[in-house]
Amino acid sequence: MSDTQTYFEIRNLHAETEGIPILKGVDLSIKQGETHALMGPNGSGKSTLANVIMGHPAYEVTDGEIIFMGQNVLELDPEERAQAGLFLAFQYPVAIPGVSVAKFLKSAHDACHPELKSKSSEFLKELRENIKYLEVDDSFINRYLNDGFSGGEKKRMEILQMLTLKPKFAVMDETDSGLDIDALKVVSKGVNKLAGPNFGLLVITHYERILRYIHPDHLHILIEGKIVHSGGPELVKKLEESGYDWVREQFGQEVLVG
Amino acid sequence: MSEAILEAQAADTLPGFDELLFEAIQSEAQPEVLKRKRAEAFSDYIQIATPTNRDEEWRRTDPALFPITEVKRLATLPQLDALPARPADEDFDVVIAVQADGFAIMRNNDTPEKLGITIGSLAEAAEQQPELVEQYLQGKALPAKSGKFEAFNDAFWNVGFFVHIPDNVEWEKGLLIRYNITQPDSLLVPRLVVVAGRNSRAVMAEHLESADDIRFIAVPERELYVDESANFKLVSLQEWGAQSYQITNDWGLVQRDANLNWITLNFGTTRSKMKFGSDVAGPGSAADMDGIFFASGDQHMDQRTLQIHSSPDTYSRLLYKGAVKDVGRSVYQGLIIARPGAIRVDAYQTNNNLVLDNGARADSIPGLLIDADDLKCSHGSTIGNLDPEQLFYLRSRGLDEETARRALILGFFEEVIDRIPQAFIREIVHRNIEAKMES
Ligand SMILES: Nc1ncnc2c1ncn2[C@@H]1O[C@H](COP(=O)(O)OP(=O)(O)OP(=O)(O)O)[C@@H](O)[C@H]1O
Ligand SMILES: [Mg+2]
User: Fold this and answer.
1) Model ipTM over 0.90
2) pTM of the shown model
3) Is B233 in contact with B205 (CB distance < 8 Å)?
4) Alpha helix (H) ranges present in A40-194?
């Protein structure tokens, strides 16, 4: 089926901000139901890639394309991407004082799933279930979005949003960073609730830890704006043990010189 | 003698607001004390120079913008038996409704009477309790001598109310004063004096409206006296019509251990100049001042706040949030004043502004005037458009740009809206903000 072939695909993606090139030809292809991991040193462009996938206006795409289920993603506004089923769990979610979690989640849900537009009571019921599932305090939903949230609370909030919006393809940008074991388990639990044949996932991480809970089919290494090496899950151990130097030596030549 | 000297000696009156008009007012039947107070105010009024845009206070808002001499002072408003009720009236024990042709005091129950609360026109209160009323007509809430428009108000007021809450009284449902003026080219000069007695607790709300299709000017003055250990809350919702103007002077005097909470919500008028100050005058007293203003179209809103600390161990906190849109213009000027001896003072002043269009402009001028030490003081202001990261965050969750902007703008004001005790006012505030975003 052609859908599984081109579920989510990035081709030769170049992006820059303020005239500075950051992504320099990213290629990535993810099939339906697959989980991929993306690793790479600080500043290599992982978050930029995530933001470009979601349509952040600070980045200009100068070349290449992103195709999701046959749609040219780059033509869509961020909200249209969300409505098409893309989701980004942010590395650093912003606080939005004055906008309550419950209200926001309801309008986001209704915007992404007009066909499921639910009554407030039904929506709240499901929200409460998800909150319980993620072991989050009930008072959460009456607070302002990410406002005064601890680092761990913000990450759970991202996963709560993911469960609420039920995306078809999600990028998780270092959702695991800074989490304690319990929180990490909860986050993984959330992800695994969505996992299945109708879901694709790109996990950006620095650590092997989360990959014990969320098992990637493939792993990619991004260095200086290019995916320089891809492989199976066994790559993780090697990266943890010996860092990125060997990758640079083996695969980064072209990047470093050019 | 040169012309200049001759001019300086002549009475400085606004055309039409002169001896002649004043004599006519004084010939009306009114209690002796009010007549005397008007006369004192008139003599101040003619001596105070009419401000011009060369005065610091009026530099950003030219007094010439206010066509005061082109409107007619409404004749002193008579008291009517009743005026049509509104649904929100039920939330209060007493409602005062004011129209161009008169006002009515409508009591929903006898709670105020049982509690010994005085609510009446200034005339009626001065008639029945002249000594009590006179005590509060000395302008003691004013931090300095009257300015031109305070004296103007005190001399020419055409509707006045006196509210007195006795010591130790808890008044839960309080009073609503609502204005709705539909008379073209009219001038309303409302005067309000509220006294919250020792250890009393009360809430009050004001709702100011006028028709959009009439030119109208209001020159209100409010004086709030919050006695020892009292707790008094006032919310003023200003929705004067699109062709209206206002010049306000409002003052609160807060005694030992008392607490004043004053929320001002400004949406209406084409031009407005508002001055507003509290003096935490007794040790341990506190003032919380919150405000929202939103200037859209070509509205011009100028607000000046004073947080005066006359005693040690006093607290004041001010949060004013404003937005400007289209070619709207706002000016916020805040001053924290700590008088000599006012030690261990906590004073906070924050003014945040959203500038939503390139043609719109917000000026924010915070200030400190400190004659004491050992105090904690901070003031800060921000001016900027919506945060692009916040906007992107909301859009990345499926909210279209317009909805996301709306959520952020409402969210920006929510911190203040949250503090408004009356649900119907919160609703009107939401409606105003949404209407302005759509226009
Ligand atoms: N909006 C921006 N403006 C200017 N420079 C930016 C912007 N976004 C990213 N950069 C720069 O692009 C490079 C890549 O940043 P990015 O955040 O994508 O890295 P990352 O791989 O996610 O790093 P980390 O592992 O630390 O999260 C960095 O040098 C960064 O400073
Ligand atoms: Mg990053």
Assistant:
1) yes
2) 0.91
3) no
4) 46-54, 78-84, 101-112, 120-133, 151-165, 181-194
- CA separation (Å) from B195 to B57, B223, B231, B365, B374? 29, 8, 11, 32, 32
Under DSSP, the state recorded for B14 is B
Q: Which residue has 């039409």 as its token pair?
A: B16
- Contact flag A112-B388 (C-beta cutoff 8 Å): no
The predicted-structure confidence for B209-259, as pLDDT tens digits, reads as follows 999 999 999 999 999 999 999 999 999 999 999 999 999 999 999 999 999
Average the pLDDT over A59-79 and give the result. Answer: 97
Chain centre distance of CA B167: 25
CB B310 within 8 A of CB B279: yes
Give the span between the Cα atoms of B186 and B215, in whole angstroms: 7
Regarding the beta carbon of A58 and ligand 1, being less than 6 Å apart is answered yes
Shortest CA distance to B391 belongs to which of A166, A107, A79, A50? A79
Give me the amino acid identity at B209.
Answer: E
pLDDT at A1 over 50: no
- Does 3.40.50.300 match the CATH number of domain A8-255? yes
**From ligand 1's centre to the CA of B433, what distance in Å?**
37
Q: Report the C-alpha gap between B229 and B285 in whole angstroms.
A: 8
d(CA B336, CA B316): 9
* Phi then psi dihedrals of residue B405, to 5 deg: -60, -45
Eight-state DSSP code of residue B18:
S
- What are the residue boundaries of the structural domains of chain B, listed by start? 1-213, 387-439
Residue A99 has its nearest CB partner, among B387, B392, B411, at B411
Q: For A119-135, what is the mean pLDDT?
A: 89
Nearest ligand for residue A44 CA: 1
**What's the residue count for chain A?**
258
Q: CA nearest B407 in A: which residue? A: A99
- Compute the mean pLDDT over every residue in chain A, rounded to the nearest whole number: 90
Closest CB to B395: pick one of A78, A90, A94: A78
Give domain limits for chain A: 8-255
Please give the DSSP secondary-structure letter assigned to residue A178. T
Instruction: State percent of chain B over pLDDT 90.
Output: 92
CB contact under 8 A, A107 and B403: yes
Question: Which pLDDT band, with edges at 50, 70 and 90, does A4 fall under?
Answer: very low
**Buried b / exposed e along B188-227 (16+ C-beta atoms within 10 A):** bbbbbbbbbbbbbbbbbbbbbbbbeebbbbbbbbbbbbbb
Single-letter amino acid code for the residue at A176:
D
Average pLDDT over residues A36-59: 97
In chain A, DSSP finds a helix count (H) and a strand count (E) of: 10, 12
- The pLDDT value recorded for residue B191 is 98
Total residues found in chain B within this entry: 439
